[in-house]
Amino acid sequence: MSRFPNPIPTPASLKARSLVYDLKARLDWGEPALTIIDVRDRNLFNISHIMGAISLPLNELVDRARTSLEFTRDLYVYGEIDEETAEAAAKLRAAGYINVSELRGGLAAWKAVGFPVEAIPYAAIK
């Protein structure tokens, strides 16, 4: 062990349940080894979602995840409500995914603190 503390702060490791600040810290750190999964209905995803998230609706989540995501990859999952998020995380864990984190508050919490989203302009959804 070094006598000197690490001068460069590192983001916290993945937790079973994360705050939006935890995910933002990892994104700001530039850590690419994670995937953000939006399990809401695809129409809701198309209207607005966390910048960089992929759409894997709950009813196709495990099948689509198995074809495209490594079982050891860090996954941040969010749904419309925390119960949907918890259900999605449980499905992924049961399918063998090891590093799954439930993003508490989902998109609403992300937007509430002003973090970046991808969204259809209001005029386009009228």
Automatic annotation (TrEMBL):
Where is the Rhodanese domain positioned along the sequence? 30-119
Q: Cite the CDD domains for this sequence.
A: RHOD (cd00158)
How far does the signal peptide extend, from start to end residue? none
Q: Which SUPFAM superfamilies match?
A: Rhodanese/Cell cycle control phosphatase (SSF52821)
Q: Its domain of life?
A: Bacteria
Positions in coiled-coil regions? none
**Name this protein carries in UniProt:** Rhodanese-like domain-containing protein
Which organism is this entry from? Answer: Aerosakkonema funiforme FACHB-1375
